[in-house]
From TrEMBL, chain A:
CDD domains per UniProt: ABC_MalK_N
SUPFAM superfamilies membership: MOP-like (SSF50331), P-loop containing nucleoside triphosphate hydrolases (SSF52540)
Assigned protein family: Belongs to the ABC transporter superfamily.
Keyword Zinc: no
Protein name per its UniProtKB record: Sn-glycerol-3-phosphate import ATP-binding protein UgpC
Membrane protein topology class: Peripheral membrane protein
Domain called ABC transporter: residue spans: 4-235
UniProt keyword annotation of Heme present: no
InterPro entries per UniProt: AAA+_ATPase, ABC_transporter-like_ATP-bd, ABC_transporter-like_CS, ABC_transpr_MalK-like, ABC_transpr_MalK/UgpC-like, Mo/tungstate-bd_C_term_dom, NA-bd_OB-fold, P-loop_NTPase
Organism: Roseibium aggregatum
PROSITE patterns the record matches: ABC_TRANSPORTER_1, ABC_TRANSPORTER_2
UniProt-annotated location(s): Cell inner membrane
GO molecular function: ABC-type transporter activity; ATP binding; ATP hydrolysis activity
Location (main, coarse): membrane
TrEMBL record, chain B:
Pfam families the record matches: BPD_transp_1
Protein name: sn-glycerol-3-phosphate transport system permease protein UgpE
Gene3D superfamilies for the chain: MetI-like
Principal location class: membrane
Gene: ugpE
Protein family: Belongs to the binding-protein-dependent transport system permease family.
This protein's GO CC annotations: plasma membrane
UniProt cross-references to InterPro entries, sorted A to Z: MetI-like, MetI-like_sf
Localization per record: Cell inner membrane; Cell membrane
Domain ABC transmembrane type-1: 74-267
Function text: Part of the ABC transporter complex UgpBAEC involved in sn-glycerol-3-phosphate (G3P) import. Probably responsible for the translocation of the substrate across the membrane.
Subunit comment: The complex is composed of two ATP-binding proteins (UgpC), two transmembrane proteins (UgpA and UgpE) and a solute-binding protein (UgpB).
SUPFAM superfamilies linked to this entry: MetI-like (SSF161098)
Topology relative to the membrane: Multi-pass membrane protein
Automatic annotation (TrEMBL), chain C:
Claim: Electron transport is one of the keywords in the record: no
Organism: Roseibium aggregatum
Protein name, as recorded: sn-glycerol-3-phosphate transport system permease protein UgpA
Keyword DNA repair in annotation: no
Family indicated by similarity: Belongs to the binding-protein-dependent transport system permease family.
ABC transmembrane type-1 domain mapped to chain residues: 70-282
Gene Ontology CC annotations of this record: plasma membrane
UniProt keywords, alphabetically: Cell inner membrane, Cell membrane, Membrane, Transmembrane, Transmembrane helix, Transport
UniProt-listed Pfam families: BPD_transp_1
Membrane topology: Multi-pass membrane protein
TM region positions: 69-93, 105-128, 148-165, 201-226, 266-286
Primary role: Part of the ABC transporter complex UgpBAEC involved in sn-glycerol-3-phosphate (G3P) import. Probably responsible for the translocation of the substrate across the membrane.
Location in the cell: Cell inner membrane; Cell membrane
Oligomer and partners: The complex is composed of two ATP-binding proteins (UgpC), two transmembrane proteins (UgpA and UgpE) and a solute-binding protein (UgpB).
Length: 360, 280, 293
């Protein structure tokens, strides 16, 4: 078990493509860190640099107290779970688990003990003599996990390990990974593009965009106080509504015209105003108060997803598309005009120019 | 619909007849004695000289020096087939591994040197090849017979294609598992290539066994003759013979084709897979 | 190439050493030697050589013999390629279609792949033998007095038949796997759009097979040029006389029988250029094929 420290780590590919732009972060011992971002944001590259599978252009990576920039992947005391599992197809499950240990010259009975123990934890004891191709996707996933566990490494690295599973298995394995990591207490770095996975697994999230860190924080903090419009629209589903607004007589209204009324809390002329779909309250009439937000909204489409429904529509007339989370029994015909209200505490303000959060 | 299917079968049966009949006829003829064949042509029935003819071809010493018989030629054919196939697979796997999995100076230069051999078949450089092998003192040796045939990069090309299709994550996983370059090759890559090796082995075995021109040039000593090479000797004896040994010639033809045909038929699916996929 | 590679100062060279040394000794050296000696006139007794520039090429190509042989090679290559591709395609299409006995047909149609060209030649001599050959007896019924080894046309005919017989299996295997690679749903879509099976073949199946066909075309031309040596040598009973031979056979004849080193080398170089062009075309096609799929 160990801490992992990244100090202004950069990756520049041939042709001067900067895939990772000076990332610094301290990962605590036993912490579960999730790197999340859209594809091409550099999250996998960063993980592979920690693993030693990619060279570091500049900067330092330390595992424990040791700078590992030049250390071979096998000597970094890490284990990795790959997206396609990368199981050795010609070896039995047992040998897949044991291979790395044998290469480390670990005693035979110790290997056997560790493999059996991992098999017990992951409930793959019955398949130890099978080859990977005879296993289902979920079972292969467990074997890949097992291969990481038996190593008893200082850190686990996960590269989108659940993306090849179907939706139901994914949820199940997600819960299991979380439970395992807590039980073993091993420092983990987990890469995903799925924000739900990121939210549920992470002790701390690192949101990456274009090779740079947008925000680091506990999932709740990232959700409650997104540092930028990028984070705001990436974390949370459906995404946060963002409306360009301007100041008019001390109040805010939509750039596109009427339909929105909110207090100007930070004294600028223009903002991007953010409000999450779940914080909008549907009402038949315009709210009277002046401390909150109120919008006039025309329904376009109602999308029931079971436990709840999403209503898509527009601000009075021509504004940007807005989505509202409504109870599952909600029924509104297209064209219906509604009023959406929210309290001031739930409104987010972002700089109209650079998209950074404006804090009171 | 039904009648169309019948037409299909008729066409296929005609094709099968065209492919099978000559060899079948050759086999039937090989079971008769030379005089019968000389008098009444190729035979359409099973004769009663089967054992005698094949026994003669396999054991009776022939040629000018009376040192070679069918069994010796069979042995030489096997040495050529196995030696060529194994040598080619080992050498081309090593080379392909270096080309695909290593970054080193002159890599692309080495690549092009090796693949330039695909440009020129042995037949067009046969004379200088013969002179060089002769000057190296390799005439009438198994080395001289086998090694120059390995110079063509077909095997390297096949394995390169195959290695490129192996998922990268396997190498990454193996490196994290502490496998070095040699260990990865032996523990992961070679076992993974098993089917590919089998397929290429079959193709190369057949290719080596069936070699004619090169063994003809490089072996003058009859104890190095292969079955396929032996055909040339038969033809030499024929010229001027009163009654040519048609029976023995056909028996030799059958013997010379039997081993590769058996290998190809038994391991059909591997062989086809190798042939079709490696050429992509 | 792989994204992740090993880095090691000497190990890759060690791996390449066997292949590279064989290539250097048994390929580069002879190839260079062939090019070199094509510009020299060698004394038949080996007492030295004189540089003669392009004389060997000029002498070779302008000789009437060469023209005749080149023409035969062209016709032979065309016949072998055309017939073996055509018959193999027909058989492959049928073998792909039948439900019963498909795998038996496949085995019976492909096994000849393993037969050595000279063995094919040996069987052909007997089938076409003036005294015992059943084919000679058969065509005699139609008034054709076939005389292999004597009549120029008859000998060439036997060579073509034997060469086609030997080459059908390879073409059949590739066509069949090409046909099986065409997705069932495409064929089903075609059968909804087009009622005539014949038209369907030419408008859907055949264009989809075209990449395989181009690829095989090159393979077959190379085969007819080089790999038919054994067939030809055996059918001629190693004594060509006035019978038809191919360009490759002439390289061998002039070099080993005629002791005309310079002329033989010049012919080699001409063939090298030809093969080089064919291979470049082939690589282009392979690239295209990969882009398709």
């Amino acid at each position: 078990m160990a801490t992992i420290t990244l100090d202004t780590v950069r990756k520049v590919y041939a042709g001067n493509v900067e895939a990772v732009k000076g990332v610094s972060v301290d990962i605590d011992d036993g912490e579960f860190i999730v790197l999340v971002g859209p594809s091409g944001c550099g999250k996998s590259t960063l993980l592979r640099m920690i693993a030693g599978l990619e060279d570091i252009t500049t900067g330092d990576i330390s595992i424990g107290d040791r700078i590992v920039n030049k250390v071979d992947p096998a000597d970094r005391d890490i284990a990795m779970v790959f997206q396609n599992y990368a199981l050795y197809p010609h070896m039995t499950v047992y040998n897949n688990l044991a291979y790395g240990l044998r290469n480390r010259k670990i005693a035979k009975d110790e290997i056997d003990r560790r493999v059996k123990e991992a098999a017990r934890i992951l409930e793959i004891g019955d398949y130890l003599e099978r080859k990977p191709r005879m296993l289902s996707g979920g079972q292969r996933q467990r074997v890949a996990m097992g291969r990481a566990i038996v190593r008893e490494p200082a850190a686990f690295l996960f590269d989108e390990p659940l993306s090849n599973l179907d939706a139901k298995l994914r949820v199940q394995m997600r819960v299991e990974i979380k439970r395992l990591q807590k039980a073993l207490g091993t420092t983990s770095v987990y890469v995903t593009h799925d924000q739900l996975e990121a939210m549920t697994l992470a002790d701390r999230l690192i949101v990456l965009n274009g090779g740079a860190i947008e925000q680091i924080g506990a999932p709740v903090d990232v959700y409650d106080k997104p540092a930028s419009t990028f984070v705001a629209s990436f974390i949370g589903s459906p995404a946060m509504n963002l409306v360009p607004v301007r100041s008019e007589n001390g109040r805010l209204q939509a750039e596109s015209g009427a339909g929105l009324d909110a207090p100007n809390l930070h004294g600028s002329d223009r903002y991007l105003l953010g409000i999450r779909p779940e914080h909008l309250e549907i009402s038949g009439e315009k709210a009277n108060g002046t401390d909150g937000l109120s919008m006039e909204f025309t329904v376009n489409v109602l999308e029931p997803v079971g436990a709840e429904s999403y209503i898509y529509g527009q601000l009075d007339g021509a504004g940007p598309e807005i989505v509202v989370r409504a109870p599952s029994h909600a029924r509104y015909d297209p064209g219906t005009v509604l009023y959406l209200n929210a309290t001031a505490a739930d409104i987010h303000f972002f700089d109209a120019e650079n998209g950074r959060r404006i804090e009171g | 619909m039904k009648r169309l299917q019948i037409m299909d079968h008729v066409i296929l049966l005609a094709g099968v007849f065209f492919m099978v009949a000559p060899v079948f006829l050759a086999f039937l003829t090989s079971t008769h004695d030379a005089v019968t064949i000389y008098r009444s042509g190729m035979q359409f029935t099973l004769g009663d000289n089967f054992l005698e003819n094949y026994h003669t071809v396999l054991t009776q010493a022939g040629g000018f020096t009376k040192q070679v018989n069918g069994l010796v030629m069979l042995k030489n054919s096997l040495i050529l087939g196995f030696g060529f196939a194994i040598g080619k697979i080992v050498i081309s796997m090593l080379a392909a591994y270096a080309i695909v999995y290593f970054r080193f100076p002159f890599a692309s230069f080495c690549f092009w040197i090796i693949f330039s051999t695909l440009l020129l078949p042995l037949e067009v450089r046969i004379l200088p090849s013969y002179e060089i092998v002769q000057s190296l003192g390799l005439v009438n040796t198994y080395t001289g017979m086998i090694v120059p045939l390995i110079a063509s990069a077909t095997g390297t090309f096949f394995f390169r294609q195959f290695f490129m299709s192996v998922p990268e994550e396997l190498l990454e996983a193996a490196r994290i598992d502490g496998a070095g370059a040699w260990k990865f090759f032996i523990d992961i890559l070679v076992p993974l290539s098993k089917t590919m090796i089998a397929a290429i082995f079959i193709i190369m075995f057949v290719y080596g066994w069936n070699q004619y021109l090169w063994p003809t040039l490089i072996t003058t000593d009859e104890t190095f003759f292969t079955l396929v090479r032996g055909i040339k000797q038969i033809l030499k004896v024929w010229i001027g013979a009163q009654i040519p040994d048609y029976d023995q010639a056909m028996a030799l033809a059958i013997l010379a084709m039997l081993p590769p045909v058996i290998v190809v038929v038994i391991f059909q699916s591997w062989f086809i897979k190798g042939l079709v996929e490696s050429d992509k | 190439m792989k994204k992740v590679q090993f880095r090691n100062a000497w190990f890759p060279y060690l791996l390449l050493l066997p292949q590279l040394s064989i290539v250097a000794i048994f390929f580069l050296w002879p190839a260079a030697e062939a090019v070199r000696s094509s510009f020299y006139l060698e004394d038949p007794f080996g007492f030295g050589a004189t540089f003669v520039g392009f004389d060997n090429f000029v002498d070779t190509i302008t000789s009437t013999d060469y023209g005749r042989i080149a023409r035969f090679t062209g016709i032979f290559t065309f016949c072998v390629t055309f017939l073996s591709l055509g018959i193999a395609l027909l058989l492959a299409v049928k073998a792909d279609k039948v439900i019963h006995g498909a795998s038996t047909y496949k085995t019976l149609l492909m096994w000849v792949y393993a037969v050595a060209p000279p063995v094919a030649g040996l069987i052909a001599i007997l089938l076409f033998d003036q005294h015992v050959g059943p084919i000679v007896k058969l065509v005699a019924l139609f008034g054709w007095k076939m005389q292999i080894g004597v009549n120029y046309f008859d000998t060439g005919f036997a060579m073509v038949i034997a060469a086609v017989w030997k080459q059908i299996p390879v073409n059949f295997i590739f066509f069949l796997s090409g046909l099986q690679g065409i997705s069932k749903s495409v064929q089903e879509a075609a059968s909804i759009d087009c009622r005539s099976g014949f038209r369907r073949f030419w408008t859907v199946t055949f264009p989809l097979l075209a990449p395989t066909g181009f690829f095989l075309l090159i393979i077959n031309i190379t085969y007819a040029f080089f790999d038919t040596f054994g067939i030809i040598d055996v059918i001629l009973k190693t004594e060509p006389g006035n019978n038809p031979v191919t360009l490759v056979y002439k390289v061998y004849l002039d070099g080993f029988r005629g002791n005309d080193l310079g002329g033989s080398s010049a012919q080699s170089v001409v063939l090298m250029i030809l093969v080089f062009i064919l291979t470049v075309i082939q690589f282009r096609l392979i690239e295209r094929r990969i882009h398709y799929t």
